[in-house]
Design brief:
mainly alpha, rod-shaped, 1 helix, single chain
């Protein structure tokens, strides 16, 4: 893990992590919906 030295880098890392977890969240919902449909 690289420690960010600037606030901008820290913000970018946080943003990337939240985007990744949001994508996982959407994938989980999508999988649940398709499972219910079929």
């Amino acid at each position: 893990m690289i420690i960010s030295k600037t606030p901008l880098q820290a913000c970018g890392v946080r943003l990337a992590k939240s985007v990744i977890s949001y994508n996982k969240f959407l994938n989980t919902i999508y999988n649940n919906i398709t499972t219910i449909d079929h």
